[in-house]
């Protein structure tokens, strides 16, 4: 019996268009639902994470103190170029602004802000404010100001007011890069006695790099051991690895002070065993910082590497050995390249976390062992110089973003390959 082919009627153009429209509508509806699910998280991050950071970083360029307290003087100085003669109207405007500030008691922020940039500005303004207001019958405002203090005749003093006559400033950003304005309002490098922050950034990155390398050296074989042990034993050791997470960072740091001090357990053992004749200085120096930070950051390196190693089949190594490859060469050429993603993620996580460390170097390190985060905290809480603290934080954040971009470019795109 011959079988008759059953053919399905061809879909008309109108039916195909209707089906395509229905599919597009369904896809759009699913996208809207998916977007609706992530909107609360996006709003949470924007309001409680991104907005506060941007608000704080904005203080690195904010400069409202001079303009708000000396509005007439700021307006007069905007058309003045450093090097031109000082005009009588500048002194008259300054006399009006200072008299108003004295009456309104708003000169405190002004003196503090200018003293950040030019030490001695507070004493100059304080001395001048005591003479305000000037008599209405004054003949020359310039002569009166120069009689109060001779610095009012110096163009460098007016250059200070000139570069602060706008509500935005680059002073904090320049200071964070060891640069400054000279008396002609030109950007120049700070002197050797004033250049500290670039060295601190270099020290921060160097210490973070040492911690990352030491952590990697310890974490890689330990991760390999955890990945190859039987499940029961491996889980027990993993609990020991995660144990530091259950202890406060401050407690762990204080514990290392007890262990590393001259009369501590480690020095006591070294002297008892005859390795040293007297206790070694292991705390309040760079060694103590490295030991404590490596211990604290070790789990952050182990977990990414372990998660990658756990997914690598051991048959690859056995196959390479069975084909005549030496075990060490098999490990390096077959096994290690598959762990590069975990190693890179662990190094990035440890390095970025380390450059922002504050408590451990502050408690275990000396004056020359403090990282940039210590100075950010100092200018935030100590000297209340939020502009400089924000500038230092901005460059630290920029370095973090650059590191992540490099990591994403090399590892995320798969460009890192080992032969």
Question: What secondary-structure arrangement, pairings included, does this model have?
Answer:
Layout: H1 13-57, H2 64-69, H3 71-77, H4 88-104, H5 107-117, H6 121-129, H7 141-148, H8 155-163, H9 171-176, E1 179-181, E2 187-189, H10 197-228, H11 231-242, H12 249-260, H13 265-273, H14 286-309, H15 315-322, H16 327-335, H17 340-355, H18 359-364, H19 372-382, H20 386-412
Antiparallel strand pairs: 1-2
InterPro entries: MetI-like, MetI-like_sf
Subcellular location: Cell membrane
Domain ABC transmembrane type-1: 201-407
Q: Can you identify the CATH superfamily of the largest domain?
A: MetI-like
Shape: flat
Largest sheet: 2 strands, antiparallel
Note the gap between the termini.
64 Å
**Secondary structure category:** mainly alpha
Low confidence ranges: none
Mean model confidence by pLDDT: 88
Q: What name is given to the CATH topology of the largest domain? A: MetI-like fold
The SSE order reads HHHHHHHHHEEHHHHHHHHHHH
Q: Hey, roughly how much beta strand do the residues contain?
A: under 5%
Oligomeric state, counting identical vs distinct chains: single chain
Helix content: 55-70%
Strand order of the largest sheet: 1-2
SS elements, strand count? 2
Task: Indicate how many domains the architecture comprises.
Answer: 3
CATH class type of the largest domain: Mainly Alpha
CATH architecture of the largest domain, please? Orthogonal Bundle
């Amino acid at each position: 019996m011959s079988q008759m082919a059953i053919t399905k009627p061809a879909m008309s153009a109108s039916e195909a268009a209707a089906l395509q429209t229905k599919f597009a509508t369904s896809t759009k509806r699913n996208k809207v639902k998916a977007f609706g699910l992530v909107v609360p998280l996006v709003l949470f991050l924007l309001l409680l994470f991104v907005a506060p950071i941007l608000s704080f970083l904005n203080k690195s360029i904010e400069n409202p103190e001079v303009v708000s307290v000396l509005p007439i003087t700021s307006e007069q100085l905007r058309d003045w170029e450093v090097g031109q003669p000082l005009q009588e109207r500048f002194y008259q405007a300054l006399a009006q602004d200072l008299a108003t500030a004295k009456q309104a008691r708003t000169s405190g922020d002004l003196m503090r802000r200018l003293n950040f940039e030019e030490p001695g500005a507070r004493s100059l303004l304080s001395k001048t404010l005591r003479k305000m207001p000037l008599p209405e019958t004054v003949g020359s405002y310039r002569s009166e100001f120069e009689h109060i203090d001779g610095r009012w005749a110096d163009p460098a003093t007016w250059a200070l007011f000139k570069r602060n006559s706008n509500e935005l400033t680059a002073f904090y950003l320049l200071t964070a890069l060891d640069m400054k304005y000279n008396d002609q309002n030109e950007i120049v490098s700070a002197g050797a006695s004033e250049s500290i922050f670039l060295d601190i950034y270099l020290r921060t990155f160097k210490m973070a790099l040492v911690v990352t390398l030491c952590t990697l050296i310890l974490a890689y074989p330990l991760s390999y051991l955890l990945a190859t042990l039987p499940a029961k034993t491996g889980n027990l050791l993993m609990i020991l690895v995660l144990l530091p997470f259950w202890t406060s960072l401050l407690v762990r740091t204080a514990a290392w002070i007890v262990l590393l001090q001259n009369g501590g357990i480690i020095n006591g053992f070294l002297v008892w065993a005859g390795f040293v004749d007297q206790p070694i200085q292991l705390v309040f120096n760079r060694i103590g910082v490295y030991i404590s930070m490596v211990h604290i950051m070790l789990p952050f390196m182990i977990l990414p590497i372990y998660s990658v190693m756990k997914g690598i089949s051991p048959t690859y190594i056995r196959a390479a050995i069975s084909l005549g490859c030496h075990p060490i060469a098999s490990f390096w050429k077959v096994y290690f390249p598959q762990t590069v993603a975990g190693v890179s993620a662990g190094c990035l996580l440890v390095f970025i976390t380390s450059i922002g460390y504050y408590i451990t170097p502050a408690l275990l390190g000396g004056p020359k062992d403090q990282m940039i985060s210590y100075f950010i905290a100092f200018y935030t809480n100590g000297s209340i110089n939020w502009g400089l603290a924000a500038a230092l934080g901005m460059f630290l954040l920029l370095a973090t973003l650059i590191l992540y971009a490099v990591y994403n470019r090399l590892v995320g795109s798969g460009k890192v390959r080992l032969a």
